[in-house]
Design brief:
Helix content is about 15%, strand content about 30%. It has 6 helices and 21 strands. The protein has helices at about 30-35, 50-60, 155-160, 175-180, 185-190, 235-245; strands at about 1-5, 10-15, 25-30, 65, 70, 75, 80, 90-95, 115, 125, 130, 135-140, 140-145, 165-170, 175, 195-205, 215-220, 225-230, 255, 280-285, 290-295. Strands 1, 2, 3, 6, 7, 8, 9, 10, 13, 14, 16 and 19 form a 12-stranded mixed β-sheet that branches. Strands 11-21-20-17-18 form a 5-stranded mixed β-sheet, with no helix packed on it. A two-stranded antiparallel ribbon has the order 4-5. The chain binds zinc ion.
Length: about 300
């Protein structure tokens, strides 16, 4: 199943929606209309009973655009797509989760995930422009996990059963703020407006041949800057769900940014940062692609 946020409305879509390099128009099915109001229009409310929504949607597959006399088909285009999970109760982000980004001596899997949050106000749609709010704005393509069921003390074998789906994400960061002060300010430097584009749609794990091994590629103005597979993550999705749920409770509709592979601009020599006008493309095989254009913003003064 593929679920999108189309102009703020929960919508079922096909695999063409958000496929890399494609911007519509496509069509989808409006969930509230197709269900006769059994399910609401708010994409976040989908997680109130995700298993019921998925069961209903699987029954719907065989039907045409008319559902019990109601026209459920809607037009979808890239500019109407919002973040599939617009108001997650918790946003968890993991650092240093690929061997390629960790110094060779420390490339073994960490005993604990390195964890921070991106405040939910930074979440943006898959094609939203990103204000370049500083001189050191950097890219980080990441697989984003969406929790579908309340998870506390969940083992690795059951972990995927608690996952609603996967999205592409960008953990955009302003490195000067991230590194400012006596200790790093990850959450602050990574939560400016539009610093968390996600989407283009939420894809359920059963749509993917192997949800533990997906190809990621990130480009700036067409140049490949990051390329890896999610099977290279030091802490896999099942391990993250086990470790996190052993300590905290994961709630339906939470999202987890799972870390980025080698290639962010601050690790390059010379360092490279995003400039107004540059186009950031982020793709994950089987899920789709984000395209975010960097736009100029009045310079801020950081004190
Ligand atoms: Zn990150």
């Amino acid at each position: 199943m593929r679920v999108a946020n189309v102009g703020g409305r929960l919508t079922l879509v096909g695999p063409e929606v958000g496929s890399p390099g494609s911007f519509g128009p496509w069509s989808g099915r409006d969930v509230e209309r197709a269900s006769g109001g059994r399910f609401g229009s708010d994409p976040q409310a989908a997680f109130a009973d995700w298993p019921a929504l998925m069961h209903w949607a699987s029954q719907l597959e065989a039907h045409a655009d008319m559902v019990d006399g109601r026209v459920a088909s809607v037009a979808v285009d890239a500019s109407a797509l919002g973040p599939p999970v617009p108001r997650p109760p918790q946003v968890i982000a993991i650092g240093a989760n690929y061997g390629s980004t960790v110094r060779a001596a420390a490339a073994a899997a960490p005993s604990m995930p390195r964890l921070f949050t991106k405040f939910a106000s930074c979440l943006a749609g898959p094609f939203t422009d990103v204000p370049v709010a500083g001189d050191q704005v950097d890219w980080e393509i990441e697989l984003v996990v969406v929790i579908g069921r309340h998870a506390h003390d969940v083992g690795e074998a059951e972990a995927w059963d608690h996952v609603a789906g996967l999205m592409v994400g960008q953990d955009i960061s302003e490195r000067a703020v991230q590194m400012a002060g006596e200790s790093p300010q990850y959450s602050l430097g990574k939560s400016f407006p539009c610093f968390g584009p996600t989407g283009p749609v939420l894809v359920t794990p059963d749509e993917l041949p192997d949800p533990d091994d997906l190809a990621l590629v990130c480009r700036v103005d067409g140049e490949v800057v990051q390329q890896a597979r999610t099977s290279e993550m030091l802490l896999s999705v099942p391990v993250l769900v086990r470790q996190l749920s052993a300590l905290i409770t994961l709630l339906p509709g939470d999202i987890i940014f799972t870390g980025t592979p080698a290639g962010p601009g601050f690790t390059l020599d010379p360092q490279r940062y995003l400039q107004p006008g540059e186009v950031l493309d982020s793709e994950i095989g089987g899920i789709g692609g984000l395209r975010n254009v960097m736009v100029r913003q009045r310079p801020r003064v950081f004190r």
